Amino acid sequence: MPITTASATSFKQKMLTDVGLGVGGDAHRIALYTSAANLDATTTAYTASNEATGTGYVARGLALTNNGVTVSGTTALADFADVTWSSSTIGAAGCLIFNETDADAAVQVHSFGGTVNSINGDFTITFPTADVANAIIRIV
């Protein structure tokens, strides 16, 4: 059998479980941001700068329920339960998932591709199916 250079799948799973997502008890949140926010791969922590405001929205967003870390083939996957700001009036162009337990450390930034609005209705973040092609967080 030949030797193949690769990161061990068990290490990828451990990264998501112990370090990045802390399934073992870390609390995560999702905050919404306006188009004026400057968030990207260099974002290190939650910021209130240009966070969305509106009826039904509270600063720091909502707590996330971690649905766990799994492995498919050699890819480690993470999943969260969908979240909804009910009866809200919010305009947001993106969001930040952050680890509240770890000094509000940034986990992921997502652009909505433009401003999404709710007007006296539900503002819902629907996380993609947790599979190799779609999971919100995956280490391949």
Blueprint (SSEs and pairs):
Layout (H helix, E strand, L loop, with lengths): L8 H12 L7 E6 L20 E2 L6 E3 L1 E7 L2 E6 L2 E17 L5 E21 L11 E3 L1
Antiparallel strand pairs: 1-3, 1-6, 2-6, 4-5, 5-8, 6-7
Kindly describe this structure.
Strands 1, 2, 3, 6 and 7 form a 5-stranded antiparallel β-sheet that branches. A 3-stranded antiparallel β-sheet has the order 4-5-8, with helices on one face. With 140 residues, the protein is mostly beta strands. A hairpin with a 5-residue loop joins strand 6 and strand 7. It is built from 1 helix and 8 strands, in the order H-E-E-E-E-E-E-E-E.
Measured as a percent range, the helix fraction is under 10%
Our estimate of the beta-strand percent is over 45%
* Total of helices: 1
Average of per-residue pLDDT values: 92
Keywords summarizing the entry:
140 residues, mainly beta, five-stranded antiparallel sheet, three-stranded antiparallel sheet, 1 helix, 8 strands, elongated
Brief summary:
By secondary structure, the chain is mainly beta. The protein has one helix and eight strands; from the N terminus they run αββββββββ. The relative contact order is 0.25.
